[in-house]
């Protein structure tokens, strides 16, 4: 049921008319929504990650059922110009079959993140709102029990308010500080 408003429930009941003679079969069934609004979670934690954007195996083409998630993110970002984002691409652990000239899951995951970035920019998001785009290949699976799960073929969009962004870059730059000094590089600026 595309774009169904199911409310805030942790249970969905689906009934099918089938019998032993004519059984009902269901395939490719996905529930792609959480129970909270993105901005509600962002206000509570300073950052929110969404993972409702999926891809076919070996492809950087965004699956059509991912559109509502991208629209929700774009709409929230338009309403809140103080928010910025990081985009991370992911793959499952299956080796990329088109691995010519060194193209691997690392490049594929980066291409997925950039495909999502381009989609958000086409929807009106300003380029400077994207702080980082990176590919993580299969290094951070969503389904840790099944490294080959299609759920691992995704992107993570991490939306942060300024306070969370400052904490993120401070922690990152402190880890990059020169040994023996307390000086850390400053947060990169968009020019």
Order of helices and strands: HEHEHEEH
User: How would a crystallographer describe the biggest sheet?
Assistant: 4 strands, mixed
- Give the helix tally: 4
Assembly state (oligomeric): single chain
As a whole number of angstroms, the C-alpha radius of gyration is 19 Å
Overall geometric form: globular
Helix/strand/pairing class, anyone?
alpha+beta
What's a concise summary of this model?
With 191 residues, this protein is α+β, with helices and mostly antiparallel strands. The chain has helices at 38-45, 67-79, 105-122, 162-175, and strands at 47-50, 84-89, 130-135, 155-160. The chain is globular and about 65 Å long.
Write the layout of secondary structure elements.
Blueprint: H1 38-45, E1 47-50, H2 67-79, E2 84-89, H3 105-122, E3 130-135, E4 155-160, H4 162-175
Parallel strand pairs: 2-3
Antiparallel strand pairs: 1-4, 2-4
Description of the molecule:
By secondary structure, the chain is an alpha+beta fold. It is built from 4 helices and 4 strands, in the order H-E-H-E-H-E-E-H. The chain has helices at residues 38-45, 67-79, 105-122, 162-175, and strands spanning 47-50, 84-89, 130-135, 155-160. A 4-stranded mixed β-sheet has the order 1-4-2-3. Strand 2, helix 3 and strand 3 (130-135) form a beta-alpha-beta unit. The model is unreliable at 187-191 (pLDDT under 50).
